[in-house]
Amino acid sequence: MPKFDSANLPAPEFCIQEVRKWLSAYPQKPLAYVHSFGCQLNVADGEKLSGILKEMGYGFTQDVAEASLIVYNTCAVRENAEDRVFGTLGSIKKLKQDNPALILCLTGCMTTQPQIAEKIQKSYRYVDIVLGSSAVNHFAQMLWAHMHGLRYAQDIQIDTEISENIQPLRQNSLKAAVPIMYGCNNFCTYCIVPYVRGRERSRQPEQILSEVRSLIQNGYKEIMLLGQNVNSYGKDLPQKISFPELLRQINEISGEYWIRFMSSHPKDATPELMQALLECEHLAKHLHLPVQSGSNAILKRMNRKYTVEKYLSQVEMIRSENPDFSLTTDILIGFPDESEQDFQETLDLVQKVRYDNIYSFIYSKRSGTKAALFPDSTPESEKVQRMQRLLALQREISVENHRKFLGKTLTVLCDGESKKRSGNLTGRTSGNILVEFSGSTDFIGKFVNIQITESHNNMICGNLI
Ligand code: 5AD
Ligand code: SF4
After folding, report:
1. Which of 54, 34, 33 minimizes the C-alpha distance to 44?
2. What's the pLDDT at 5?
3. What residues contact 464, with CB distance under 8 A and at least 6 apart?
4. Among 51, 62, 190, 280, which one has the highest count of C-beta atoms within 10 angstroms of its own C-beta?
5. Which amino acid residue places its CA nearest to atom 5 of ligand 2?
6. pLDDT recorded at residue 134
7. Which residues sit with their C-beta closer than 6 Å to ligand 1?
């Protein structure tokens, strides 16, 4: 099976222009369908792939049946994410049979795993292009090669080069994601990401600053800085710059906007980060600090490199200065041999921190990770029950947290119309709390002040003032 070697192919810019010429011969603009599964970093990669496609002359469709090129940008973090991709691939086999000219491309975290690439090659023979995670640089070359008769093109290397000359095609004109670094060095024992995304590499601060500046000038109101662990930003760069320093430089940009970031590993969340969060006016008063577990024994086996006590001291650092500061977290339930006592400790931690929201996941065994070899005697049904207990506790906390907003006036970035109650608008506070209110659609994209009159477990409601 031919493997792909970018060194023997023309440069990406040349390939883009060649594909463009090729496509211009079609009577109608060919359409691409691009779908990204998984996290916001994957979605940001998908926007870059779409940017390349646009430059090549593709139009876009939300309907796979209309597309002449389909790109699935996959996620490997949990088994059910992979199952969904295989299910989706099965469902479009017929499209490919009916239209052999349809190009089907698979990319993202799944494809970097050799056993998955092999499975695709064997059992999903109608896939045309398999491209490793972050390999956006090679995408144009792969398409060029395919159009020159390479029936199956595969490049499952992790692309460590950061492409600065690709303009992403953004899905949203109000909120933009800006990756500041790629990869992860942490090797939490349950996590596949370091294996499929490679080692940490940071973008140059000038590139990030200029992208953020241009987004703000173009009317974007919320920028989400992305990295697997933004707290290690800059450690691999020759010049000395830390993440809190980058945040302070971004905060100097004038305009009306909020900055958020994800994800922030507690082992590297420093007092400087907390100070920047409290002091910088453009930084949203919200910190997503994934704790994963409230048991020190489990944290150790997860290789998280912090203790519950250290984590709580970080929470205290921020809440002692600003009691309303919003905190959210990720919690992994049912890590191998998590005992009832370990789980109780997680519930205790959630009680203490009183998060504004939690994202909880049942542990999924990922082959190739250390934890995949750990014995696990906890039945799946018990894990599901633990998840329900955790969610019930968080619901109670959210109800109480939301009640404290009653009567207060909050600044909200209005981001659209409510899907649930027609005529209502929705928005988010600086703490990322969902707010509904009634008003004219002219307010969409603007910061507004809302007096809170109703509180629920998943949102609050109020009136424009
Ligand atoms: N199983 C379940 N959840 C996982 N996560 C990472 N790896 C796994 C896994 N193997 C969760 C963690 C992480 C979030 C993005 O996904 O909680 O913070
Ligand atoms: Fe995975 Fe841990 Fe890296 Fe996050 S910090 S991506 S959980 S290995």
Report:
1. 34
2. 63
3. 437, 438, 439, 443, 448, 449, 450
4. 190
5. 186
6. 66
7. 77-78, 190-191, 290, 292, 330, 332, 361, 363-364, 366
Give me the average pLDDT of each 10-residue run along the chain (465 residues): 64 92 91 96 94 96 96 95 93 91 93 89 91 82 86 75 89 96 97 95 97 98 98 95 98 98 97 97 98 98 98 97 96 97 98 97 97 96 98 97 97 95 93 96 97 95 95
Instruction: Output the CATH code of domain 409-464.
Output: 2.40.50
Question: What is 26-42 written as a DSSP string?
Answer: SSS--EEEEEE-SSHHH
Cα(40) to ligand 1 centroid in Å equals: 14
286-403 matches 172-284 in CATH topology: yes
**CATH architecture, range 286-403:** 2-Layer Sandwich (3.30)
- Which CATH number is 172-284's, of 3.30.750.210, 3.40.50.970, 3.30.70.1350, 3.40.50.10420? 3.30.750.210
Residue with the smallest CA separation from ligand 2 atom 2 is 188
Give me the amino acid identity at 134: S
Q: Indicate the domain borders of the chain.
A: 6-155, 172-284, 286-403, 409-464
Ligand nearest to the CA of 198: 2
Sorted by sequence, the CB contacts under 8 Å of residue 210 that are 6+ apart come out as none
Is the omega angle on the peptide bond into residue 263 within 30 degrees of 0, that is, cis?
A: yes
Q: Is the CB of 187 under 6 A from ligand 2?
A: yes
The DSSP letter of residue 154 is: E
In Å, the largest CA–CA distance within the chain is 67
Q: How far is CA 99 from CA 60, 66, 451, in A?
A: 18, 11, 55
Q: How far is the CA of 354 from the centre of ligand 2 (A)?
A: 23
* 303 in contact with ligand 2, CB cutoff 6 A: no
Q: Which ligand is nearest to the CA of 292?
A: 1
Per-residue burial over 139-156, b if 16 or more Cβ lie within 10 Å, else e, is bbbbbbbbeeebebbbbb
Candidate from 330, 331, 335 with most ligand 1 atoms within 8 A of CB, to mutate: 330
Question: Which numbered ligand comes closest to the C-alpha of 76?
Answer: 1
